[in-house]
Amino acid sequence: MADFTLKQGDLGPSLFAQLLEPDPDNPGQRRPIDLTGRSVQFRMRLKGTVGALKVDRAAVVTDAVTGRVRVDWAGADTDTVGLYVAELRV
Fold first, then answer.
1. 19 contact partners, CB below 8 Å, separation of at least 6
2. Which of 6, 31, 82, 83 could form a disulfide with 10 if both were Cys (CB 3.0 to 4.6 A apart)?
3. What is the pLDDT of residues 21-46, one digit of tens each?
4. What residues are paired with 41 via a beta bridge?
């Protein structure tokens, strides 16, 4: 996932991502992950910490066939200043 910047208290913009996987038919290329019938979990923690998650909830699948998802922010997500690492789990 690329760098994404928010300021303390920001609730926008939402985070948009397209989930990709290696394409076995085209080595070195990537293809969208088909999310049809699957869920995606967004997890975020303060960088340098282990275990304690700041955010752990479902992402919104906006286009299952092309692997597109959206994460909308809640007030508690951005209330603490710091550098965070995040992942999307299918």
1. 32, 33, 35, 40, 67, 68, 69, 88, 90
2. 6
3. 999 999 999 999 999 999 999 999 99
4. 58, 89
